[in-house]
Write a structure and sequence with these properties.
Layout (H helix, E strand, L loop, with lengths): L8 H10 L5 H10 L12 E2 L10 E2 L4 H6 L6 H12 L6 H13 L5 H11 L3 H78 L18 H15 L13 H10 L3 H6 L11 H12 L12 H4 L7 H8 L5
Antiparallel strand pairs: 1-2
The protein binds a DNA duplex (21 and 21 nucleotides) through helix 1 and helix 7.
Length: 327
DNA sequence: AGATACCGCGTGTTTACCTCA
DNA sequence: CATGAGGTAAACACGCGGTAT
C-alpha cells in the first residue's frame, strides 16, 4: 500500500471527527444490495482503489465487497486507514455526478437529512456529498460571475457607443456653430460700419453741446438720444441684450440693463462652463463688449433701497451681494 | 449575558487525474 | 509509446457566523 499524503494522521482524524465512516456491512449493503436510484443496470460503477496509480481507476461490474475482500491485510481497526490510504483521490462516476447535478438543480443547499440520503443513494460518504455540493456551489458562482461580467460588459459597451455617438454629434454641432458664427460676424461688422458712417454723417452738422439747435425735430439732442436709447433697450434688453453692440449706445446700455433688471437677462451672462465653455475663446471677439457689462446677478436686489444706488456703484461693493457668506 | 463547542458554509489552496500536443 | 503542460474535479485548510448548551 502506497502511503498517501492526503490521508495522513491529521486528515484521518478530521475525517473521523466529521463523518463517521460506515461499517463494512453498511458499505456492502449500499453497493450491493441497495435498490440504487441511479439504476446502474445491475453493475456497480465503483472506484477501483486497488489499481489507483496503475492506469484505469474506474472499473465496473465489480461488487464492492469483492474489492473489500482484496484488503485481506486490513483488520477492523485498520479498515478505515486502508480504505483511505488506497483511495487517494478518485473521481465520481458519471452516474453519481448526474444524480448530484439533478439534486443540485432542485436545491443547491444541502440539509443534513438530504445529505445522508444522497450519500446512501450514491454509495458515497456524507462528507463526499457535502464537499461535492460545496465545490459545485463554487463552480456555479464562478460561472455566474462570468455571466454577470459578460452582461455588464455588454451594457458598458452599449453605453460607450452611445457616449461616443453623442460626442461626435456634439463636435458636429460645435463645428456648425463656429461656421455660422464666422458667417455672422462679418455681417455685423458691415452693419456697424454702415451705421457708424451714417451716424457720423448725421452727427456732423449737429452741435451736441446745445439743445437749442433742434429744429423741426430733425435734430435730436443728446439727452433725447439717451432717452430713446433707454426706451429701446428697455424693450429689447430682456430678450436681446446681445444687441448691445449697437454702435450708438454702448455705455447707455449698461444703464438700461441696470435699471431694468430682468430674469431673462440673467441667463445671458450666466457663467455656464459646461459643454460650450471651451468655446469661450472663440466667442471672445463676439462677446468682448458683453463681458464689460456687469452681470445682472451682481446687482443685489434684496434691499430695494439699494436699487437706487446701482448706478455706477463700485465693483468691490458687489462682492457683498455676490458672496453673501464669504469669509 | 457571556463563554464555549459544534456545525455548515465560503473561499482559497493542494492534490490527483485526464487530455492533448 | 512516453512525456510534460494545462485543465478540472475532489479534497482539504482556515476563518466566520449561527446556534445550542
Amino acid at each position: 500500500m502506497a502511503g498517501s499524503k492526503l490521508f495522513g494522521p491529521s486528515n484521518m482524524s478530521l475525517l473521523l471527527q466529521n463523518d463517521s465512516l460506515p461499517s463494512s456491512e453498511v458499505l456492502e449493503s449500499l453497493w450491493v444490495h441497495t435498490s440504487n436510484p441511479l439504476s446502474f443496470q445491475g453493475s456497480k460503477t465503483i472506484v477501483d482503489f486497488e489499481n489507483v496509480g496503475s492506469g484505469s481507476r474506474v472499473v465496473t461490474d465489480i461488487p464492492f465487497f469483492q474489492q473489500l475482500e482484496k484488503e485481506e491485510n486490513c483488520g477492523d481497526e485498520e479498515y478505515e486507514a486502508c480504505f483511505h490510504q488506497q483511495g487517494k483521490k478518485r473521481r465520481l462516476s458519471s452516474e453519481q455526478v448526474q444524480f448530484l447535478e439533478r439534486s443540485f438543480e432542485v436545491e443547491n443547499k444541502l440539509e443534513p437529512d438530504r445529505k445522508v440520503q444522497l450519500a446512501k443513494d450514491l454509495g458515497l460518504q456524507p462528507r463526499q456529498v457535502a464537499i461535492w455540493f460545496q465545490n459545485r456551489r463554487a463552480r456555479f458562482k464562478t460561472k455566474q460571475l462570468e455571466k454577470d461580467y459578460g452582461t455588464l460588459k455588454a451594457s458598458f459597451d452599449r453605453l460607450k457607443d452611445d457616449y461616443d455617438n453623442l460626442v461626435q454629434e456634439n463636435d458636429k454641432l460645435k463645428d456648425e456653430v463656429n461656421f455660422l458664427k464666422k458667417k455672422v460676424i462679418p455681417l455685423d461688422k458691415e452693419n456697424s460700419e454702415e451705421k457708424s458712417s451714417q451716424e457720423a454723417i448725421n452727427k456732423e452738422p449737429m452741435d451736441l453741446t446745445s439743445n437749442e439747435n433742434s429744429e423741426n425735430g430733425s435734430k435730436v439732442s443728446f439727452p433725447n438720444m439717451v432717452l430713446k436709447c433707454k426706451q429701446e433697450d428697455a424693450n429689447s434688453a430682456k430678450s436681446d441684450v446681445l444687441d448691445s453692440d449697437s454702435p450708438h449706445c454702448n455705455d447707455v446700455n449698461n444703464l438700461s440693463s441696470f435699471m431694468e433688471p430682468t430674469t431673462d437677462s440673467s441667463h445671458v451672462f450666466e457663467p455656464d462652463h459646461s459643454d460650450f465653455s471651451q468655446d469661450e475663446e472663440d466667442n471672445d471677439n463676439l462677446n468682448d463688449n458683453l463681458l464689460t457689462l456687469p452681470k445682472i446677478e451682481d446687482v443685489c436686489y434684496d434691499d430695494p433701497r439699494d436699487n437706487s444706488c446701482n448706478f455706477g456703484f463700485a465693483v468691490e461693493d458687489q462682492t457683498f451681494c455676490f458672496w453673501p457668506y464669504s469669509i
